[in-house]
Amino acid sequence: MNQIVDLRSDTVTQPSAAMREAMRGAPLGDDVFGDDPSVNTLQVQIAARLGFEAALFVPSGTQSNLCALLGHCQRGDEYIVGQQAHCYRWEGGGAAVLGSVQPQPLEHQRDGSLALADIEAAIKPDDPHFARTRLLALENTLGGKLLPFAYVQAATELAHARRLVCHLDGARLFNAAVAQAQAARAEVAPAHRPGAELSGQAVAGAPSGGVDLSDDPVWHQARLIAQCFDSVSVCFSKGLGAPVGSALCGSAEFIARARRIRKMAGGAMRQAGMLAAAASYALDHHVARLSRDHVLAQRLAGSLDGVPELSVEPPQTNILFVELSQAAKPRADALVAHLKSHGILATGLYRLRFVTHLDVDEAGVDRAAAAIRQFFSR
Ligand SMILES: *Cc1c(COP(=O)(O)O)cnc(C)c1O
After folding, report:
1. Which fold has domain 31-285?
2. Are 333 and 263 in contact (CB under 8 A)?
3. What ranges do the domains of the chain cover?
4. pLDDT digits (tens, 9 = 90+) for 237-272
5. Which of 43, 146, 214, 259 is 20 to 30 A distant from 223 in Cα terms?
6. pTM of the predicted model as reported, rounded to 2 decimal places
7. C-beta of 309 in contact with ligand 1 (< 6 A)
């Protein structure tokens, strides 16, 4: 029996043996009392490395975004956000339901960005007719797309100039950073690039966040992106391969407010250090390797190129979308069933989504491609 090739999401990864070892050995306390050493280490680590004063470990990315939106906004405020953004579309309307914070959704451009003119036009004047526009929320990567860094700078500068705060849903910030580092590397001739190798090697153990990552090209890009924002949420349970958890980063004062909201939302955990230790392990060992996931997504895209029934969207990171032609759509259900019977799992129907991650390899991706090609060759 062939193993399942699970390309539904990068959330499906199992903790590796070494990660489980790190979890087993983690010193624990009670994080509601603030004395779980492993949680505290993780929070110091991620805040320091992304250039923030403080961070908060939370059970999920959804709760992290909720804490951010409610931490920045008051009842009756609104946040500008993309139609496809997770913190608008995929979080049960939490900010509106729980915080009376209304979204002002905008259509995305093809590259995933929100047009500066649309943002500008959506910012309401100070007039009692309108909700108070308080925040701009961006997501990077969005649907696997890397937002151009010049755009991230321009959008957050515009928002700040109009007195909005900026929040980044960086569930896949490190996928963005890896892709951005790769692009930066391609722009500079290799000989002029001291220390900028994307080696894929682990960063040495970092008990206190005090490890010097200033020369690491991926962390450098992650910091560059993060520092455009007042708060950033990152997920450990996506490409980084930890079982549970996200971190919200920001100023000490903002994180104190977020901590109250986390409690209110039921997200304050006790011996959470076992989970935090997995996240710390991931930060030290699973960041640079994300480039492998990106290569795998490209490999899958390449193997599907030329199938006439498919339109393959070239992947920028670890998410590949493949759209069925009009003529092939009646066979979409049969395709999904065919893939399932071959142990290949994806999401979507007319537009299939394949996500690469820690627990898939070249052989798995090649099996997926072969099964798809076989289906259309019949
Ligand atoms: C997965 C994800 C989240 C959070 O998801 P949880 O399942 O709540 O951890 C938030 N934003 C984006 C962009 C995501 O992909």
Report:
1. Aspartate Aminotransferase; domain 2 (3.40.640)
2. no
3. 5-11+289-377, 31-285
4. 999 999 999 999 999 999 999 999 999 999 999 999
5. 259
6. 0.94
7. no
